[in-house]
Design the sequence.
């Protein structure tokens, strides 16, 4: 597959697909915790993109490897994100967490951060976001934030994490093109992030790097019920879960499910709407003996 261009047309198509997405509600008991993650579409300069004449790089998704200082999911691949504060929208929470994780909070001006969150979630700015992708990048290199331009385009379907937290994935765009060494272009918060990296859309749609594995799991663990000798026998189930390779660490779990959803429900249809080469997103099950 050739490198995908993150054009203004593709960004518009992504926003339209998100607007029309049918979000199925989850039936949950009580009041579970809510979290938001930012799913950043970005441009990364790779040898393949330069060969294809894409000056500002090819379309990719930004990811992070969580620090071992955090309380859960230590060392796992994730999106920037965290719990939604009282009175906060998922979009605002996702952008806030993005700025906190990718731009060390101690170095960031809190007032400026609040301005960035308001800008990134402002309907007028979001509506104008695609125009930023017309022509070569001409951003201000002296911008206070290394991201320079962030826009939250819309939400995917809510997903439950194994901890019981309901996760709201917010898809957005980062306008500034990045070099292949993504981590070096941010001042990540070491309390939360070990490193940042990107997987190109080309990699995410490569059947050699993207597939499904059959996972057997104990439904008690998913519901957060601790194991004990007194409880009823385990109810084991199997399901095929997505896995993505190509980065410094294996992408699986809720993060992989979010990527699978954004590819299937948003990116692939948007590529067709933008007139870019049609492709398919159909992960095949890979067994241990394959």
Sequence:
């Amino acid at each position: 597959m050739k490198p995908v261009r993150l054009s203004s047309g593709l960004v518009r198509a992504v926003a339209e697909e998100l607007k029309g997405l049918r979000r199925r509600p989850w039936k949950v008991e009580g009041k579970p915790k809510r979290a938001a993650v930012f799913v950043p579409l970005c441009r990364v300069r790779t040898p393949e993109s330069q060969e294809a004449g894409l000056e500002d790089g090819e379309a990719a998704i930004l990811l992070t490897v969580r620090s071992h200082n955090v309380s859960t999911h230590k060392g796992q691949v994730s999106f920037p994100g965290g719990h939604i504060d009282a009175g906060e929208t998922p979009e605002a929470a996702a952008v806030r967490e993005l700025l906190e994780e990718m731009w060390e909070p101690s170095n960031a001006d809190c007032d400026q951060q609040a301005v960035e969150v308001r800008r990134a979630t402002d309907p007028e700015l979001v509506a104008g976001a695609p125009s930023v992708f017309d022509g070569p990048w001409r951003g201000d290199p002296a911008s206070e934030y290394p991201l320079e331009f962030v826009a939250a385009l819309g939400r995917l379907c809510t997903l439950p994490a194994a901890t019981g937290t309901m996760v709201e994935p917010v898809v957005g765009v980062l306008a500034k093109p990045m070099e292949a060494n993504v981590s070096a272009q941010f001042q990540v918060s070491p309390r939360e992030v070990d490193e940042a990296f990107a997987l190109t859309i080309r990699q995410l749609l490569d059947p050699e790097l993207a597939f499904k594995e059959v996972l057997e799991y104990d439904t008690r663990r998913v519901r957060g019920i601790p194991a004990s000798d007194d409880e009823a026998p385990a109810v084991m189930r199997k399901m095929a879960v997505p896995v993505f390779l190509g980065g410094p660490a294996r992408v699986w779990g809720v993060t992989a499910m979010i990527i699978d959803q954004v590819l299937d429900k948003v990116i692939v249809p948007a590529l067709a709407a933008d007139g870019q080469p049609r492709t398919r997103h159909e992960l095949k099950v890979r067994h241990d003996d394959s």
Q: What stands out?
A: Residues 221-230 have pLDDT under 50 and may be disordered. The chain has eight helices and ten strands. Residues 253-273 form the longest helix (21 residues). The domain at 8-204 is CATH 3.90.79.10 (Nucleoside Triphosphate Pyrophosphohydrolase).
